[in-house]
């Protein structure tokens, strides 16, 4: 293993340790704070102080180097954003560590965690371990200090969660009522099957069953499984097979059988070297468990949400009470209030955090220049994120106002409030029919066939060959002998790119063609040549009937209608709180700062570049005022 691999492995494990060790599942808002890199060393060049604790330039630089998104820009709007993000994340990390400073962590605890790191990375050899530390730019003492801090924060959070009161029955019942889809029994079927090894025999048995033969008798006489009970899928009870769930059948067989909600026979399904036919006698749709049966799971879910909420509120207090002092002017950043709702200020860094952690932004930065990416992020992504964040901060206030037993983090409460707003949504047969008609292509299986193409220079030559070949002998040899150029296309899917549009139509859109038989297409012009197709093993296009996909459509339509109704409800409720959105003011001020701080270009270059969109300089202390005249203070003073 080379040193580069060791370093990468070490850094990965450190990141995992910082995330998992902190038990960050409690809230997305704090999820990445400790995984942002940096050293616990007190040495280095001071950049900022948080409640007296120093953040060094080296820590900030290491954080930038360790994150491909943060290190992807050099100047402009996004670098200004990323700088604000780094400072905010480091500040929050310091707050967590400070808050857990009263938690005792023994040397043995730290040693145990270090041992796990070394064993997981094949670093039990002392020299390998020292080499990895040196390459990562961290000492053993610094690593141990980081581990100690993470364990302390983890235990602080665990103690905080342990003190949260258990869910009440009212809270559990409300959760159950709003999430009944989480408490459903699986769908079941009552049925029988025939299982044989010979696919041809299975096809003949299916023909007999469709012709009216008694399925149980066919199964008793032919099936390799359950023949002693007439192929019944479940044990016989009171003369009738017991229902079974999908997991009792091979996946492909279950998919075919459980699609028959109106009952009936499946086609022959071949999988695992065997062929199956299932007769569904009765389909039993999923049912919701009664609350008494689901109560324990509902209580557990609400307990976890209440713990998440307590942790988020605890961290909000830490952040609100932070005193940040800028030591190095180069690390002074702007973090104004981007929005205000229900008396809560939302800082711009919270929006930037969501930008940095958006996977689409990472892909965007790899495809387009940073200036262009900034325009897209500012114009398309940030406005939506601000609206979502306003909704999140407003929701706890709305929950109290509506007197709802909703708990959890802000995001969890948004989801619950949306479900409450959509609680009366219904799906009608007309909705299902309309969806099916508008999206029929979604339920189609394209035609396919094995195709050989013979092309000729002239239409006359192609017509002569088509008229003369009687289907006897080898098509390739006959076409070649007639002067054609032959291409064996193999198995072709209708509408695909293997054939031109004209040849696709000639192969698959001819009426009256025998399925499976070898047939010749009409002479068809394709480009500058004239082709004749020999089509065998034709399987026509099929469309699943509405009866087979009704439940699937119902679920899709219901989810869509619920999402729309829930969002409308939240938007209406949030509007009553009259939120203030300062995003555009902040972006305008940021553009001026970035332009002022950017190195001056020669006049000719500036004319070529033109307006570069919304850029952002660093170092300005001007913070835009919120609507209504309220000043939007920067996070660092």
Automatic annotation (TrEMBL):
What Pfam families has UniProt attached to this entry? Rotamase_2, SurA_N_3
Question: For this protein, what is the EC number?
Answer: 5.2.1.8
Q: Does the keyword Signal apply?
A: yes
Indicate yes or no for the key word Signal. Answer: yes
Q: Where are the compositionally biased (Low complexity) regions?
A: 592-602, 623-637
* Superkingdom field: Bacteria
GO MF terms listed in the record are: peptidyl-prolyl cis-trans isomerase activity
Reaction it catalyzes:
[protein]-peptidylproline (omega=180) = [protein]-peptidylproline (omega=0)
Keywords for the protein's UniProt record, in alphabetical order: Isomerase, Rotamase, Signal
Q: Which residues form the PpiC domain?
A: 186-282
Where are the residues of the annotated region Disordered? 220-241, 591-637
Please report the name of this protein according to its UniProt entry. peptidylprolyl isomerase
Q: Which organism is it from?
A: Deinococcus enclensis
